[in-house]
Amino acid sequence: MKITTVTLVLFSLAVSSCGDLVTEAPDDNQVFDAPLDGLTGAQLKAHLDGDEAFGETFTVETGLGPVFNQTACVNCHPDEGRAHPATNLIRFGRTRSDGSFDVMPEFGGPQLQDRSIPGYPAEVLPDQVTGISERGGPIAVGLGFIEAIPDAAILAQEDPDDADGDGISGRANFVAAPDFLPIAADKVVRNGRHLGRFGRKATAIDLLHQTVSAYKADMGISTDFDPVDLFNPIVGNVVGDNVTDPELSAEVVQNVVFYLQTLREPLRRNEQDSQVLEGESLFAEIGCAACHTPEMTSGASAISVLAFKPVRLYSDLLLHDMGPALADNFPEGDASGTEWRTTPLWGVGIVENLLGGTPFYLHDGRTSDLVEVIQLHGGEAEGASNRFGQLNDQQKAAVLAFLKSL
Amino acid sequence: MKAYRTGITAVLLALSFAGLFAQEPAAPDSLERTPNVIGGIYDRPYIYRMGGNIAIGGYMEMNSNFAREEGISEGLSFEARRFNVFLYSAISERVKLTSELEFEHGAEEIALETALVDVLFHTAINLRAGILLSPIGRFNIAHDSPRYDIVERPLVATEIIPSTLSEVGLGFFGALYATPYDRFTYEVYLVNGLGDGIVGGSGEGTRISSGKSGTAFEEDNNHSLAVTSRIALNPRFGGEFGLSFYSGNYNTYEIEDVRVDDKRNVTIVALDAEYKWRRFNFRGEAALADIDVPASLTELFADRQHGFYAEAGYGLFQGPFLGAPDASLGVVARYDYIDLNDGTFSATGQDIGDSQKQATVGLSLRPTVETSIRVSYARKWSRDAFGNRRNSANLQFGVATYF
């Protein structure tokens, strides 16, 4: 009976005594996926409903495709973080002889849906393209705060003609609003178009716009808001799958929008570390903060915990010429083929905890090296990039430590 | 591939280990001359309990779950996992019918898992027709919960071999005796086969279990039958060692005789071993699956999967316990590994994740050999396709019994 007793004792000890045996939650400032503090019970329930929908993978039976890029929101935003390059999507088009840009809808443009349900052809990149824009999904948290920043606060930073002579000439992207999008009275209108703030080139006006577009263009899911499914034009039949449209209800879409609105902003680490503080100071000194605006303030919001709060996103949400190394030659709205919306830097230090420990930076995830990221900044950012290059090793390390604290 | 080789090595080690003890056989009785697989549909206690030509029996299992993932728990809950009813009829000396009706989670899922007729010609060759258990891996044909001491089924036997895989078809089974003490059994069947859902039926990636379809019991989706077979050795030193395969076209490539798509095939190869020595018992199974995937879905959907499990148990006690004259208490440990996407990303050269490792330990008290009262603790380490990790743990209490 000795061996029996020993086994029983060991088994009991193992199961009952060690916290790690039942897994521990990571620290809040090491992960993205968490709700805002201060949500009510009903809001938390809606947040969790949206979380479930955000994680839903679509199948042939539930309406996936017929052409698509990914099967779920989380594929491009795994753990609510930024995408793995394997999920990058491509937008394409060609410049006509008169200089205008053609997104080539007859080939399925502007977005290449390079995957398709079995038995249906995927789209292929036509030979005539002059602009190919490869992009990965961005971090999906803190978006409620970005949405709540008033148009006026963003537009106040515009300097399209570089009137102040600092070499930075940020400008807004004004885009046409789809019919389904309710536009609040306080939104700024220019030539019948509205301020874009989401997406790599700021082509989505708000999170509903962004979400409906992603369901359709990325997953081939029609919704109550946009009930026409995708199809591959070369087939010649506008019906691609045999699932009745719309494939997703407005309720589910709105839950996902609410989920995105109520995902907490990334929390910082080592904020008061002396090296981080030195880096923060250098970051401003060499001119990075001219576009990567450290803080804006949210305005009124239907979600009270989002209203009138400091938003430390490190972006001005405006378009900037980033030079030839980052150019995609794919204009969208008012954004040219060399312009990109300033990417918010919050959370940049958390991404290295995800994707198996390999971060992928820039719009296409081409590098895992933050120094290379800075070096690739050209155009309006060339000055700041050069000034970073002139820092000594200790100063460079401080800037990187600051970035990794975000 | 490293993990796959480890799996094969584990199974081969089990075989070698068994071979060691072949040097001291315990004066074996000659094997009963039967074509039936140990632990299979005719190796259930209900058939012999009542005698007569008709028998009704079954098994039930329930369990509790207390699971945590990354520190988040949904608390303690109970699960009415299965209530399966067996019906057996010896229609004549040479014609037998056996069936199994499964109720999962109460009446949430009801399935006729087995309904077959065996026509017995000779130990070496017999006809089987109806809804049968595809003989791919040992677990699929001998999966009754009371036979096992761990609450959860092995991952390789549910995620790669989609147990319980029952299909309509017909074929032959039998046994060949090399000596009175060494037996080979075989089963070979043609079945309607798995369906389109293998690729596209789950948005998570290739999932062979999504190819199971209720309509396949009425008609094959592509009029191209699948073939499945298993050969097994019962050597004189005990245990069973099997090799099995499953292969067939799974997608609907023709509609009304018009070719609308390319043919795509799924093939699974499995090795299994089960052996008992003194107070120890060992089990293991390894499987490798190759799946044809459309070019537009590569990487997102796997064209190769593999996995294995290895389990060892030890009998701590056997004898009278609380009025049960032949009770037993055993400890068991199992290691599972599955890789559901055995490929690399062309964009980065990195391995595609979608893999799981799991270590399980448990205790099983058997008041009778037909009833297991068990507690299991499982720790799982998962990686999604992109390398994001998920750690989870599950403490389960369960009861499973034949009746």
The end-to-end distance of chain B, rounded to whole angstroms, is: 43 Å
Using CB atoms under 8 Å apart, which protein chain pair has the greatest interface?
A-B, 46 and 52 residues
Taking the sheet with the most strands of chain B, its summary is: 16 strands, antiparallel, barrel
- Give the helix tally of chain B: 4
Can you count the beta strands of chain B?
Answer: 18
Radius of gyration of CA atoms of chain A, rounded to a whole number: 23 Å
Q: What is the CATH superfamily of chain B?
A: Porin
Strand content of chain B: over 45%
Structural class of chain B: mainly beta
Identify low-pLDDT runs of chain A: none
Radius of gyration of chain B: 21 Å
The number of domains of chain B? 1
Q: Helical percent range of chain A?
A: 25-40%
Keywords:
heterodimer; A: 406 residues; alpha+beta; 4-stranded antiparallel beta sheet; 3-stranded antiparallel beta sheet; 11 helices; 13 strands; B: 403 residues; mainly beta; Porin; 16-stranded antiparallel barrel; 53% strand
Short description:
By secondary structure, chain A is α+β, with helices and mostly antiparallel strands.
Give an overview of the whole structure.
- The complex is a heterodimer of chains A (406) and B (403).
- By secondary structure, chain A is of the alpha+beta class.
- In chain A, 27% of the residues lie in helices and 10% in strands.
- Chain A has one domain (41-405).
- Chain A contains 11 helices and 13 strands.
- In chain A, a hairpin with a 2-residue loop joins strand 8 (189-190) and strand 9 (193-196).
- By secondary structure, chain B is mainly beta.
- Chain B has a single domain (2-402), classed as Porin.
- Helices cover 8% and strands 53% of the residues of chain B.
- In chain B, strands 1-2-3-4-5-6-7-8-9-12-13-14-15-16-17-18 form a 16-stranded antiparallel β-barrel. A two-stranded antiparallel ribbon of chain B has the order 10-11.
- The two termini of chain B are 43 Å apart.
- The interface between A and B is large, with 46 and 52 residues.
